[in-house]
Design the sequence.
């Protein structure tokens, strides 16, 4: 739930709140709703504004990532459009939680209100509180392999090349799991995931090799070899650990694609961002990256 | 008088008797006159020659479109009528705009735009009216609640001024801003380019009902301020036992009803009807307007700050006068967004105003004579209270009407008129008190 802005009205609606400045909704207002589903990319969510027959989008700005005071991921973008032919501007913020999101949608009716409404929307998004606690399974940001298709299943994400299943490569991104520092939990994950694939018969699993990403996350890498239907198959596993969460990426490759896929894996793993702690702010340096969850 | 040879002239012995074409009367039917001739130019050049001729002859005249004036504004008793209905061509349909001659009807405009899935931004409610006539009086239309008076959609204008000049005008021209809404006192609208919008043919609307005038008046401006409904028109009426009701049809152009209608949250009517989807334009198109009744009209335009009080007082007066009440099945209500670019158009200095239209319908001339004093009283009181008077068929008997209605703008309007019509020939007397001789 968002906090109240001083002097603004506060009207409860079935799934949220409408809050308006002291001079009334003719200047603009902010709508808040929570536990909306399903989670989608910010631009797709913004396009839903056109479900209102009065509104037509003229341009959608680039989404900018934010991190709330509770350490949850969010995004903010501006949508310019015509409300019954009058130029207006929406500033929309989304706070993404496990399998739902909240929407903070500010509508500025006149150009002189654009900046003010945008500022208030950002403020409300930063302090949108859900009380889900830090230590739970979480999605985390990374750059997916370029051009691959993503599928989400709750907190897991799966990525497949365009020529799948002819090319039986895939990435599996597990949710970040809360771990206790020095618990040896990475080994346990590697053990559990070594043969966790339908039809996969384990031949061998390498010893853990150290791995450090360009962003300084450290962890281990395992090479697992097995067979699917008698055909040789590689499962490469990376588990990173920031002392709070374990981040797991699994690559499956047929023999002829493995080298190419390992390069993609290194790139992907390098972009993993650790789960932020509570009290965060805008994620500087990664404001524009919103391709972190499969749809 | 020697009439110009290249302009069609109709003399009194040939005046048509069909009421809608008879130059001796108008739609209101209250005021009658005896013009000495009707001139019917066929195009813009002909219109310019006509007005130049009349200026040279120092001949007062009235401009006439489809004749839907209510108070003889298009009737020239002892003067000439310039009939603009031959200038009825659709000149061009461009991207987001349509250019038509002033005598084209809204029906012609609506039909042409409908072929391409568009409509004028603001459509006049009576499709038989001419575009030029509606714009000349700054009339309201079906979407005025959010888009303003019909003049708000004008992008460009060709005005033939009383000196016979053809003037191409845009929003930056003072004459553009003053001519739209000046009741034809600055010349004839020969061509006009209107803004158009793509819209589904159907209006999804519902009826909202209020039992309290104050509550309606307090909430109605929200429709314009927040752009809740593109279409928002109401009526004040009475149950058989005299209780007052306000019913509003509120809707948006859409293919089907959509959930989460914002208007239902922002307005708090006492009753809400189910959504209805209808092709309103087709219904308007099928309407036939009868010319067999007397229809005196009075439009009061009040700023929202005291619109409720005006409406309440008016309601009390109507209920206290059985004669007026019997001839008045309802009072039209239209909250609309004003447009400050047009200083002469009938609108108060308030972002949103409420137009209140009284149009009694009676069959007997004698009944009209009984009603007129009442309507005159209502109009005078309203004017005293800061309300603007729109469409009227009543001689208010106020030589200073123009000054009271227009305030400081009157001086500017007189100045503009003096430059192009020093003798005040064009539509003389249409705005009482505009010309110093009244």
Sequence:
């Amino acid at each position: 739930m968002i906090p109240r802005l001083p002097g603004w009205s506060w009207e409860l609606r079935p799934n949220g709140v409408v809050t308006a400045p002291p001079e009334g909704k003719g200047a603009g207002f902010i709508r808040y709703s929570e536990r909306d589903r399903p989670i989608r990319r910010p631009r797709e969510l913004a396009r839903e504004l056109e479900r209102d027959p009065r509104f037509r989008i003229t341009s959608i700005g680039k989404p900018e990532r934010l991190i709330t005071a509770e350490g949850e991921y969010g995004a903010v973008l501006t949508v310019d459009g015509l409300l019954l032919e009058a130029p207006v501007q929406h500033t929309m913020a989304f706070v993404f939680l496990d399998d739902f999101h909240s929407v903070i949608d500010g509508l500025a009716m006149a150009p002189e209100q654009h900046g003010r409404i945008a500022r208030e929307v950002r403020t409300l998004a930063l302090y949108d509180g859900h009380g889900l606690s830090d230590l739970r399974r979480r999605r985390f940001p990374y750059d997916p392999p370029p051009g691959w298709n993503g599928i989400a299943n709750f907190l897991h994400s799966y990525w497949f090349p365009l020529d799948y299943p002819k090319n039986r490569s895939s990435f599996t991104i597990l949710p970040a799991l809360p771990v206790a520092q020095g618990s040896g939990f990475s080994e346990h994950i590697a053990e559990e995931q070594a043969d966790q694939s339908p039809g996969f018969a384990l031949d061998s699993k390498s010893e853990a090799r150290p791995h450090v990403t360009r962003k300084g996350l450290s962890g281990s890498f395992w090479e697992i070899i097995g067979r699917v239907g008698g055909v040789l198959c590689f499962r490469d596993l990376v588990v990173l650990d920031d002392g709070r969460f374990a981040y797991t990426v699994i690559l499956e490759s047929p023999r002829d694609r493995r080298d190419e896929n390992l390069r993609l894996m290194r790139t992907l793993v390098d972009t993993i961002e650790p789960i932020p702690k509570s009290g965060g702010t805008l994620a500087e340096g990664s404001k524009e990256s919103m391709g972190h969850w499969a749809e | 008088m020697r009439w110009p040879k290249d302009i069609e002239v109709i003399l009194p012995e040939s005046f048509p008797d069909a009421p809608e074409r008879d130059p001796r009367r108008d739609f209101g039917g209250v005021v009658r006159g005896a013009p000495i001739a009707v001139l019917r130019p066929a195009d813009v050049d002909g219109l310019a020659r006509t007005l130049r001729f009349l200026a040279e002859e120092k001949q007062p005249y009235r401009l006439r479109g489809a004749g839907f004036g209510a108070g003889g504004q298009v009737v020239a008793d002892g003067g000439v009528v310039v009939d603009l209905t031959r200038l009825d061509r659709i000149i061009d349909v461009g991207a987001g705009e349509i250019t038509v001659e002033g005598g084209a009807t809204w029906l012609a405009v609506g039909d042409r735009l409908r072929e391409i899935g568009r409509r004028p931004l603001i459509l006049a409610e009576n499709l038989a009216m001419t575009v030029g006539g509606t714009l000349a009086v700054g009339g309201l239309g079906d979407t005025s609640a959010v888009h303003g008076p019909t003049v708000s959609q004008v992008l460009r204008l060709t005005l033939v001024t009383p000196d016979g000049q053809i003037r191409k005008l845009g929003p930056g021209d003072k004459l553009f801003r003053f001519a739209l809404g000046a009741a034809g006192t600055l010349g004839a609208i020969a061509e006009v380019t209107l803004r158009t919008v793509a819209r589904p043919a159907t209006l999804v609307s519902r009826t909202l009902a209020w039992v309290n005038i104050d509550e309606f008046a307090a909430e109605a401006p929200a429709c314009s301020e927040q752009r809740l409904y593109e279409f928002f028109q109401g009526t004040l009426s009475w149950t058989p036992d005299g209780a007052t009701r306000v019913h509003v049809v509120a809707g948006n152009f859409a293919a089907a009803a959509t959930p989460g209608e914002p208007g239902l949250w922002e307005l708090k009517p006492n009753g809400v009807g189910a959504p209805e989807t209808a092709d309103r334009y087709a219904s308007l198109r099928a309407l036939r307007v009868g010319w067999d009744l007397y229809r005196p009209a009075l439009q009061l335009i009040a700023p929202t700050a005291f619109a409720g009080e005006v409406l309440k007082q008016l309601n009390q007066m109507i209920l206290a006068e059985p004669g007026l009440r019997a001839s008045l099945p309802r009072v039209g209500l239209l909250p609309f967004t004003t447009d400050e670019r047009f200083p002469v158009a009938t609108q108060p200095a308030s972002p949103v105003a409420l137009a209140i239209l009284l149009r009694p319908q009676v069959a007997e001339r004698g009944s009209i004579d009984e009603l007129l004093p009442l309507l005159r009283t209502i109009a005078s009181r309203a004017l005293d209270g800061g309300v603007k008077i729109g469409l009227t068929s009543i001689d208010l008997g106020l030589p200073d009407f123009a000054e009271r209605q227009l305030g400081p703008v009157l001086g500017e309007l007189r100045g503009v008129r003096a430059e192009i019509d020093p003798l005040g020939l064009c539509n003389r007397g249409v705005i009482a008190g505009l010309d110093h001789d009244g």
Notes: Chain A has two domains: 9-126, 149-270.
